[in-house]
Amino acid sequence: MLLQTAVEHLNDIVLITEAEPIDEPNPRILFTNPAFERLTGYQADEVIGRSPRFLQGPETDRATLDRIRHALESWQPVREEVLNYTKTGEPFWLEMDIIPLADETGWYTHWISVERDVTQRKHTEEQLRLAAKAFENTSDAITITDAQGRIVSVNRAFTRITGYSADEVIGHNPSILQSGRHDDAYYVRMWQELSETGQWRDEIWNRHKSGRVYPEVLTINAVRDEHGTITHYVGVFTDISRHKQDEAQLAFLAHHDPLTRLPNRTLLLDRCRKMLAAADRHRHRVALIFIGLDHFKTINDSLGHVIGDQLLQGVADRLLEALRTSDTLARLGGDEFVVLADHLTDYQDAVAVIRKLATAFGESFELNNQTLFITASMGVSVYPRDGTSAEVLLRNADAAIHQAKQEGRNTYQFFSSEMNTQAVETLNLMTQLRQALRYEEFSIHYQPRFALATGTVTGWRRCCVGDTRVWVGSPQAGLFLLQSRAA
């Protein structure tokens, strides 16, 4: 009676079966205690006479069952963990101790199985295995230290990023990674924040085993026990060298020409403004020299863009060699370059810079077995006479280079106010011509051509005359020669 009471009050399952048959249909259940009913959901009268194997399901491990069967065939006790299923289909884990029982003659008559619910333990183990896999396979480096800051564990990513193996760092302080770029105050603030908030995060520079210094994003969390006492620190970091390189490249491309690596318009104007401010303070002049390659389009179209790009790179290199370190060379696009030359005292200093630049075009360019000669036209504006802002100086140098090209190219022109007047007149004229075409305000007239010796008409000249209201204020533009034709 006492034994029966004890069995009924056990938290562990007690299951008694027949001894045989070991194979199908397997030993039948003869007894279960209330713990079996509580865990499985089956009443005793639902399972008596059935094989315990009805509790097994699709995820029950076949290899485990084979080990149990082999033990039973040898009448040996066995301990295994088996996944079973409740009456409602919920999986649960049992740790089973199965023992054979014999009668007074030594004949095995029964099996008794004492089974403990280990579902929670198995779940915890699975979570730990999963955490261990995540710890080892994450791309972020993880460092765990004790409360005194001694490293107790690192993952594979730590070794990949730092170059140190686990054996080389366990027991040491993470300070072995310090780069020397941060002062003591930096680390004091870090530990103060960790103490106050339990967390710290920042970009930090550390040192690889090879000595290379690299940037990383580091997060440190304090781990506390149930009493609130810090037991460990967990540091998670990732190497952001590539990210920093990408940031630097984007910042560079925002202010530089990708082909020649020279400053672009944005950086040119910024440097020009700084030069002008310095020129004001020191009472000197600044020259802005606009350079355009003569007939570059012909080279680009005939020899291809690859040769054209190589030529632009070669020109950039030679121009840089001709300049002082204080000067700036920029590429605006196409075949257009701009030079900023400061610390000039007079116009002769600007001419000296221009002549030095011209030497860049004195020799041929050898590109892909092609020998190329090229010249350049230059337009020059000088601060403060030709403008007091970067934008005005650039615009006026552009006007000057157009004048240089009109005068036959391969030369230079200083800006003059007449160039602006001419540019405005040309712009107005082009606008008026477009309007006249749009509103059909042209008429065709023929002018006779006479032979002075005989006075006879030898041909006709066809002219186009615009409506007078269009050309008010510009009488010289009222007549355009379109074509000459012999009569």
Descriptive keywords:
31% strand; alpha+beta; Beta-Lactamase; disordered C terminus; five-stranded antiparallel β-sheet; elongated; 20 strands; Alpha-Beta Plaits; 487 residues
The biggest beta sheet is recorded as: 5 strands, antiparallel
Question: What is the CATH superfamily label of the largest domain?
Answer: Reverse transcriptase/Diguanylate cyclase domain
The gyration radius over C-alpha positions equals: 46 Å
Low-confidence segments:
468-477, 481-487
Q: Give the N-terminus to C-terminus distance in angstroms.
A: 143 Å
Task: Write down the overall geometry.
Answer: elongated
Model description:
There is one protein chain. This protein is an alpha+beta fold and 487 residues long. The chain folds into 4 domains: 2-124, PAS domain (Beta-Lactamase, 2-Layer Sandwich); 138-243, PAS domain (Beta-Lactamase, 2-Layer Sandwich), CATH 3.30.450.20; 259-415, Alpha-Beta Plaits (2-Layer Sandwich), CATH 3.30.70.270; 436-486, no CATH class. It is built from 15 helices and 20 strands. The protein has helices at residues 2-8, 34-40, 44-47, 62-73, 119-137, 156-162, 166-169, 184-197, 241-255, 265-282, 296-303, 305-322, 347-358, 390-406, 417-438, and strands spanning 13-18, 29-32, 78-85, 91-102, 108-117, 141-146, 151-154, 199-207, 213-224, 230-239, 285-293, 328-333, 336-344, 365-367, 370-372, 376-383, 412-414, 442-450, 457-466, 479-486. Strands 2-1-5-4-3 form a 5-stranded antiparallel β-sheet, sandwiched between helices. Helix 11 (296-303) packs antiparallel against helix 12. The termini are far apart. The model is unreliable at 468-477 and 481-487 (pLDDT under 50).
